[in-house]
Structure formats: structure tokens, C-alpha cells
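Annotated sample (chain length 198).
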Amino acid sequence: YPFCTIDPNVGMVPVPDSRLETLAAIVRPQRIVPATVEFLDIAGLVAGASKGEGLGNQFLAHIREVDAIAHVVRCFESSDIVHVAGRVDPNSDMEVIDTELALADLATVDKGLERAAKAAKGGDKEALRRKALLERIKAHLDQVKPVRAMQLSGEERHEVRDLQLLTAKPVMYVANVIGRGLTKDKSAAWRRSRTRRR
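Output written by the structure step:
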């Protein structure tokens, strides 16, 4: 497999903000510290990762606490760079990742359901409510649909926040291209595939 580590690469990127410079000119602090964005670059998932294929999915724990996921999708051909599936197919790659993240969330929800079911046996109203919510989420994930696409209230989202569900996080798909980027045909196909995933 092209990826041989479960440890993430971490990058800190300062966020340029002209307002900060304006404020610094007025206040004249000893030091100016811009806001930063921390990126965690993890190994790519392969089909079957939830069953132990490739490196498995244990490294997903590294991204459970992130605010959003940027999924970099290969959109270029090169005989010098091996593709794990043997062919470049961005739509298939996005589908594999979406499926594997849903399966990882499904395992998390199943564990949460077990705990909620035990607590609900005693008649605990909060546990009964949580169990019903987790059953709805499980049914949604069983269809390989992301939790972020569910119509959950703010209270319901807060209720399951402790589970750190990966498919509840916003996702940005990034087309990894070379040269001049996407051709018109590929660009149109990319937009169509993105529209289907919302």
C-alpha cells in the first residue's frame, strides 16, 4: 500500500488577516500572533478498511476531534505514482471514503446503542431518548448516508457530540491535479459528483 504509517503529519498554517495588522498598528503589541489552522494529514483509507484491509481504520481516531474534513481526491494520471485501486477514479475514491467513514461511525453508534439500551432498561428517560436518536442515526448510516445530511435539531446534535461522528463533520473535497488543473470535461464531472454527495 502507498501509505505505510498510521501517524498523522501535522501542519500549522497561519491565517492571514489584514484586520490583525491594522489592530497591531494601533495597539503596538510586543508580539503579533495570528490565528492558525492545524491540518492533520492521515493515511488514505482503502475499501475494506473497516474490516482491516490496508492499514485498517484505527488511525481515524486522530481525526475524531477535528472541526472539518478536507478529503483530497486524486484527479490526475501518472505512471510514476501508484494508485491503491490500480486506476484513477475520483468518484470511486470519494465513495470508498464516504463508505468507510460511515462504517466507522456505525461501529461507534452500535457501541453507544448498547450503552443506551442498558441504561434504558431501568426506565431512564434520557437513555430512552438517546436510544431512539441513536437508532435513527444507525438507520441513516446503514444506508451509507452521512450524519451531516440528517435533519437533526441543535439539541440532538449536542446529544451525540460526545461520539465524535466523522460523517457529522463538514467535508470539503479537494481535487488533486497536476499541470493546468481539470479539463472542462473533468471539471464538469467533478461538479456533478460533488452535487450528488451533499
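Annotation: The radius of gyration is 21 Å.
Annotation: DSSP finds five helices and four strands in the chain.
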